């Protein structure tokens, strides 16, 4: 049994790798016991990973690689959407040009499309 003094000058002692205060309450462990506990926990963790109960934590490199892949996919999708928008804008412009040409042609004939059917008979299918 070793006697130790902590910051408040209370007597503590070590017994079997454990640290006790003057009231015989365990307040810690020595470094060797701590390291043994950590190694035991790592062993159990590895067995749980092998059994498929838990997954191995990702490394910062793996997380970074996933983020980079997600960014590449996002950029690809944005490029595809941009190309779609350009294509749709071209189609809209072409439709507007066709509409303007039809309006110009109808104005040239002196009759609009709505007046050519003014006297047409519409039958109800009801």
Percent of residues in helices comes to 55-70%
The biggest beta sheet, please? 4 strands, antiparallel
In terms of quaternary structure, the protein is: single chain
Measured between the Cα atoms of the first and last residue, the distance is: 106 Å
What is the β-strand count? 4
Structure characterization notes:
The chain is α+β, with helices and mostly antiparallel strands and 126 residues long. The chain has two domains: 2-50, no CATH class; 60-106. 59% of the residues lie in helices and 13% in strands. It has three helices and four strands. It has a four-stranded antiparallel beta sheet. The longest helix has 50 residues, at 60-109. It is rod-shaped and about 110 Å long. The model has no long low-confidence stretch (mean pLDDT 83).
Which short descriptors sum up this protein?
13% strand; alpha+beta; 4 strands; 126 residues
């Amino acid at each position: 049994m070793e006697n130790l003094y902590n910051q408040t000058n209370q007597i503590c002692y070590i017994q079997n790798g454990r640290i006790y205060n003057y009231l015989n309450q365990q307040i810690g462990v020595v470094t060797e016991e701590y390291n043994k506990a950590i190694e035991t926990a790592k062993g159990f963790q590895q067995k749980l990973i092998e059994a498929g109960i838990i997954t191995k934590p990702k490394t910062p490199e793996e997380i970074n690689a996933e983020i980079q892949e997600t960014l590449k996919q996002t950029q690809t999708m944005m490029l595809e959407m941009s190309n779609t928008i350009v294509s749709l804008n071209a189609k809209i412009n072409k439709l507007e040009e066709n509409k303007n040409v039809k309006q110009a042609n109808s104005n040239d004939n002196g009759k609009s499309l709505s007046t050519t059917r003014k006297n047409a008979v519409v039958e109800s299918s009801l």
